[in-house]
Amino acid sequence: MTKKIGIEDLRSRKWFMNPDNPEMTALYLERYLNYGLTRDELQSGKPIIGIAQTGSDLSPCNRHHLELTKRVRDGIIAAGGTCIEVPVHPIQETGKRPTAMLDRNLAYLSLVETLFGYPLDGVVLNIGCDKTTPALLMAAATVNIPAIALSVGPMLNGWFRGQRTGSGSIVWQAREMMAKGEIDGEGFMELVASSAPSVGYCNTMGTATTMNSLAEALGMQLPGSAAIPAPYRERSQISYETGKRIVDMVWEDLRPSNIMTREAFENTIVINSAIGGSTNAPIHLNGIAKHLDVPLNNDDWQQVGHHVPLLVNLQPAGEYLGEDYQHAGGVPAVIGELIAADLLPHPDVITANGKTMRENCAHLRSEDTKVIKPVSDPLKAEAGFINLKGNLFDSAIMKTSVISEEFRNRYLSNPDDPEAFEGRAVVFDGPEDFHHRIDDEAEGIDEHCILFMRGAGPKGYPGGAEVVNMRAPDYLLKKGIQALPCVGDGRQSGTSGSPSILNASPEAADGGGLALLENGDRVRIDLKKCTADMLVDDAILQARAEAIMAAGGYPVPESQSPWQEIFRDYVGRFDEGMTLRGATKYQDISRR
Ligand code: FES
Ligand code: MG
């Protein structure tokens, strides 16, 4: 460790050892002594490390952090620091109404105030469940005190009658099985519960595994930290190492802005393609970048990431689950394979352990090539996202790696036009509208239709709903038609393997073209040109826009809580990271 700062430079000295203001020092000190901290721990020059605690009974995915934090504390103390546990606004992906995404920015805001306003020299970010990871990385980005992330780790693999059952992904399968009458409500419950056999976050390559892997890919975790399942002994051991490391990072003055550079984000986009990461990743990464003033948009995702092959064979794009990912070498093995094939654009970026990505990973390879494939034998050749544009929206993401053979044969097999298809629009205004109408045969939905979901973006359905991956009507499922093309201004769960076109920006509720679409319009989608257009005359679209304006804009339901109201007033677009207006102009505030 090369010490770059001394005791007098510690931020916490302003509170606990301020010679210019002994009265305030006493006032700041006395209350931290009242539960047993000693003056030595607060005044002798030990870095004071916050542990941003996202584990609680309300957040089962992250709850195991309550245990792991004991080892983090041991590590911090062993390295000569003092620990202060910092509560974070709870977020649980599947339990929060209307959506956990609404709370990402709330947890961000509150953690920024906490890290800025209290005597902390560094912070351990307890990440895990989907939105906890971006919320904490965004806060660390804004405050810019030395920070290291600690993943809680995925659950053990789920099993049902000898088959792996993956959290989230099993729900989509179970829904189809129930629609076809293969299981009843009890069977549904049993099958879904089998996918969650232990503490930890979702064991599939959903948004949680994606974002935890990407926190490591960005360089913000110790190498090898992301994929260790929550109950494994190595998870407790890396918690201890993480605690030790953050104290050194304070002395080295290694800050989020030194690690999360444009180069690190480009690496992360490549790694996201290789792992088959969630379509929520561009929203979160673009948001984190915005808080660091690093330019990043959905064009970058296509340019940097589209050509990268899929290496990780995890559900929903593949077969395996979290434990298999760990046994195959986890994120370092993926990075090692990419470096060996010269696919990682910036292997010499610095990471949280003070070494470069190349030093950490270049010598590593897959330990199980069924689960992590080499670049020479990938699962899919081009696994990244494409960024579609047109008169429906300025930007929408599609994960081409999950296009099934059935889908390809049905929609992308015209020899004259192999990457494009046209269809008749069926438009739903929000998830409730979808549930009311989807199985009604009078709607006349057939295999030539494209399903549209709108009113599901950050403003329309505050936070944006994970509802764009719409199932086909029951009567089509029974005929063997598994999926129709889906497009929308909402999101979809990372555990869904549906090739939807989503995160459309701007959304219908924010002046987006989707608001102008009507049932029965022809729509053309071209995956080669990356376009999505309503085949409707401009004059007609103009008239529709005027009618919507005259009616007071695209209608959205009323907010249900104060935060929803404030959020809607300040939130930006998905393609710009869904950050809050006014928040992104604050950078590096720990030095204020
Ligand atoms: Fe929390 Fe999947 S629901 S990690
Ligand atoms: Mg989700």
Provide a compact summary of the structure.
With 592 residues, the chain is α/β, with parallel strands linked by helices.
Structure description:
The protein is an alpha/beta fold and 592 residues long. The chain has 22 helices and 14 strands. It has a 5-stranded mixed β-sheet with strand order 11-10-9-13-14. Helix 4 crosses helix 10, helix 5 packs parallel to helix 6 and helix 12 runs antiparallel to helix 13. The radius of gyration is 24 Å and the shape is globular. It starts with 12 loop residues before the first helix and ends in a 22-residue tail after the last helix. The relative contact order is 0.11. The mean pLDDT is 96. The structure holds FE2/S2 (inorganic) cluster and magnesium ion.
Mean of residue pLDDT? Answer: 96
Classify the oligomer. single chain
| Helix proportion | 25-40%
How is the main sheet built? Answer: 5 strands, mixed
- Helix and strand composition category: alpha/beta
What gross morphology would you assign? globular
Helical segment tally? Answer: 22
Q: Regions with pLDDT < 50 over 5+ consecutive residues?
A: none
The total strand number stands at 14
Strand content: 5-15%
- Placed side by side, the strands forming the largest sheet appear as 11-10-9-13-14
Distance between the termini: 27 Å
Small-molecule binders here are: FE2/S2 (inorganic) cluster, magnesium ion
Q: Could you tell me the radius of gyration in angstroms?
A: 24 Å
Organism: Tateyamaria omphalii
Domain Dihydroxy-acid/6-phosphogluconate dehydratase N-terminal: 46-360
InterPro entries: Dihydro-acid_dehy_C (IPR042096), DiOHA_6PGluconate_deHydtase_CS (IPR020558), ILV_EDD_C (IPR056740), ILV_EDD_N (IPR000581), IlvD/EDD_N (IPR037237), Sugar_Degrad_Dehydratases (IPR052352)
Pfam families: ILV_EDD_C, ILVD_EDD_N
